[in-house]
Amino acid sequence: MLRIHFTARDIARIRFAPRPAPLQELHAALAAAVNRQGGPLLAPWRGRVLRSLPATAAPLADLVPAGRPPLFLDVLGESLSDSFEQIRVTGSGFVRSELERVYGGLPAPAWIRGLHASDGSGWRTLYRAQQAAYEAVLAPVWSVVQQRHREEFTRYALTVAEHGVAGTLARLAPDSRLDDGVWAWPGAATAGATEIRDIRLAGRGLVLLPTFHHPAGPLLQDSPGRPVVLTYPAAGPSALPPTAGRPDVDAEALAAVLGRTRLDALRLLAEPHTTTSLARALDVSNATASAHAAALRSAGMTTTTRTGRSVTHRRTALGTLVAGV
User: Fold this and answer.
1) What are the φ and ψ backbone dihedral angles of 276, each rounded to 5 degrees?
2) Which pLDDT tens digit goes with each residue over 86-113?
3) How far is residue 124's CA from residue 310's CA, in Å, rounded to a whole number?
């Protein structure tokens, strides 16, 4: 469970990132590929991502020796070069302490030792690795990511206008609630946390950043002296175009995995449906439709939002990628 504690000042400082952050989207894509997130149905995409990475990008793996990236990488530059400059001006003490944290006494490669010593060659190695990974993984689809971000930004603005901040946060994170200044997200499994994680904003505010390459979530960036950034899986269509990221899915094979009715439900949920309208379209009972929606939601393929006594189901980016339509 993730619990974010707001002060009154923090509520006033919640904002939505106006543009996608290329370095954070790259981190999300690499994490999803390396950690096998999305299950076996995303295996073709993961394989393509990992095969596309040139040797120049290999040093990035040295930054996560135990799956815990250093916090000085958490910046929101609007271009890769801007992101790198923000990292580069990070205080040397913070860089050293974070490298010591993630290595925890393990022997470090020479270039990591260079970063620790503020050596210029270490920083050049990092920038070349980031640039190479971006060109291989994100550059081919970046214009699509930008378009999807604009759509998500508009959806967020309209939801705030209609439902207010508390209602909007609950819609971004299914089953979450904002009560008494605490946003509780029961199903969240944040990086580095397996049980309850409490984050106290203490006036720093919160930035909401959608990701289009990370089916699980959230990714939380909590760096000293910076606003907390919550990167969450966008609910809209996948940012990956058919030629770059969508696996070729055979309908019969997919039906054998999901079941024919559940596959039909996933494809119907390209448009929002209440449980009743989904049941009517599938020609099943409300209870059966609800069970199918719950199974798809548990696999990260759909989301469910509640308004009063009514619930609405819709497909996630992962669900769109799997459905193939």
Assistant:
1) -65, -45
2) 898 888 999 999 999 999 888 999 999 9
3) 54
Cβ-based neighbour number of residue 265 at 10 Å? 30
The amino acid sitting at 309 is: R
Query: Quick one: DSSP state of residue 68?
Result: -
Tokens of 88: 């580069």
CB 29 within 8 A of CB 213: yes
Number of Cβ atoms within 10 Å of the Cβ of 172: 26
pLDDT at 135: 92
Domain 251-323 = CATH 3.40.50.1820: no
Distances (CA, A) of 230 to 32, 75, 91, 146, 219: 16, 12, 23, 18, 6
Tell me which residues of the chain have a pLDDT lower than 70.
Answer: 38-41, 174, 187-194, 216-217, 235-254, 317, 321, 324-325
Long-range contacts of 260-268 (CB under 8 A, 24+ apart): 261/288, 261/292, 262/292, 262/295, 262/296, 263/323, 265/289, 265/292, 265/293, 265/296, 266/296, 266/301, 266/302, 266/315, 266/319, 266/322, 266/323, 267/323, 267/325
User: Could you check whether the bond before residue 218 is cis, i.e. omega within 30 degrees of 0?
Assistant: yes
Q: Give dist(CA 237, CA 247) in Å, integer.
A: 15
Structure-token match 């006036």, residue found = 203
- Residue 173 burial (10 A CB sphere; 0-12, 13-18, 19+): buried
239-285 pLDDT per residue, tens: 343 334 444 455 666 677 788 898 889 889 988 899 999 999 999 99
> Can you tell me the distance from the alpha carbon of 179 to that of 273, in angstroms, rounded to the nearest whole number?
27
Round the CA-based radius of gyration of the chain to a whole number and report it: 20
Distance (Å, rounded) from C-alpha 223 to C-alpha 108?
Answer: 23
The residue ranges of every structural domain in the chain are 2-19+142-233, 22-140, 251-323
Residues forming a β-bridge with 302: 315
Among all chains, which residue has been given the structure tokens 């309908």?
251
Judge if pTM exceeds 0.90.
Answer: no
